[in-house]
Amino acid sequence: MTIKNVIFSLFILAILAETVFSQNCMDTSCPGLKECCSRWGFCGTKDEYCGFFCFSGPCNIKGKSYGYDYNVDAGPRGKIETVITSALFDSIMSKVESNCSAKGFYTYEAFITAFKSFGAYKGKVAKREIAAILAHFSYGSKSFCYKEEISNERYCSKSKKYPCEPGKNYYGRGLLQSITWNEYYGAAGKHLGLPLLKDPDLVSRSPEVAFKFAMWFWNRNVRPALYLGFGEITKRVDCRECGNWRRDDTKNKVKQYIEFCEMLGVTPDQGLDC
Ligand SMILES: *[C@@H]1O[C@H](CO)[C@@H](O)[C@H](O)[C@H]1NC(C)=O
């Protein structure tokens, strides 16, 4: 075989691997904090996973660029409390149906307090980023209807640093219910000064903790990719959504992002699809 043929065969194999064997992190995301989910659906820490083909997790995106107007961090900016006033927040929440378990749970006060507890949001924030955050929060909680995932999975992985508490489950809670696994709860708790490993239900008991938990993840794994566009950050939030079998989910999320951009009076970036 010539080199060209070898490369071509590898390419075909890679596509087959994606369609046949995609599983693993495309279903449950990677358990380890340092693990990335590769485009082919496997978890690892090396460059094959965290480099150019990284799909989600702590991807190394240095030097990656799409050009064009793909920057969620660009455009008009403002302070969080002036971009999202309590009236606007309440009008968003008024659409939550009364039979939702989270009806009335996500409050404006908790939202603002959580934002302000992160250095990155103390000053002026790009309106596009706020629209993106709202789109992902809305999507991640099924339009602010749920406080936690309906799941029997434990999402407990072996970890020296953040061992599971007996009887506790680390499935998705709060606004980004794609945040799962004990290491994520452990690291978030450490950062926020909260006992989330011992008591993960704190996220679904306190709206402030719920917002902080989601913002912690956003700051850590999503924010570095803002300049690559909305599609790219969607992968960082939840790689499952970008699989071929969930295209409708992707479309809905893009629709929500565009709606929130309109609400805040900004044009969305152009890199919408993931
Ligand atoms: C609430 O009620 C609506 C309309 O009856 C229904 O479509 C929806 O699934 C319900 N939601 C929940 C969380 O039960």
Number of spatially distinct domains: 2
3D shape: globular
So how many helices? Answer: 12
Please give the radius of gyration in angstroms: 19 Å
- Percent of sequence in beta strands: 5-15%
Outline the low-pLDDT stretches. 10-22
Physical arrangement of strands within the biggest beta sheet: 2-1-3
Distinct small molecules: 2-acetamido-2-deoxy-beta-D-glucopyranose
Write down the CATH class of the largest domain: Mainly Alpha
Overall mean pLDDT: 89
Description:
With 274 residues, this protein is mainly α. The chain has two domains: 1-62, no CATH class; 65-274, Lysozyme (Orthogonal Bundle), CATH 1.10.530. The chain contains twelve helices and five strands. The chain has helices at residues 3-21, 24-28, 47-50, 80-83, 86-93, 108-116, 127-140, 182-192, 202-205, 207-222, 230-237, 247-264; strands spanning 36-38, 43-44, 54-56, 77-79, 124-126. Helix 6 packs across helix 10 (207-222) and helix 10 crosses helix 11 (230-237). The radius of gyration is 19 Å and the shape is globular. It starts with a helix and ends in a 10-residue tail after the last helix. The model is unreliable at 10-22 (pLDDT under 50). Residues 97, 99-100, 145 line the site of 2-acetamido-2-deoxy-beta-D-glucopyranose. Belongs to the glycosyl hydrolase 19 family. Chitinase class I subfamily.
Main attributes of the structure:
274 residues; Lysozyme; 3-stranded antiparallel beta sheet; mainly alpha; 5 strands; binds 2-acetamido-2-deoxy-beta-D-glucopyranose; single chain
Strand and helix map with partners:
Layout (H helix, E strand, L loop, with lengths): L2 H19 L2 H5 L7 E3 L4 E2 L2 H4 L3 E3 L20 E3 H4 L2 H8 L14 H9 L7 E3 H14 L41 H11 L9 H4 L1 H16 L7 H8 L9 H18 L10
Antiparallel strand pairs: 1-2, 1-3, 4-5
Bound molecules: 2-acetamido-2-deoxy-beta-D-glucopyranose.
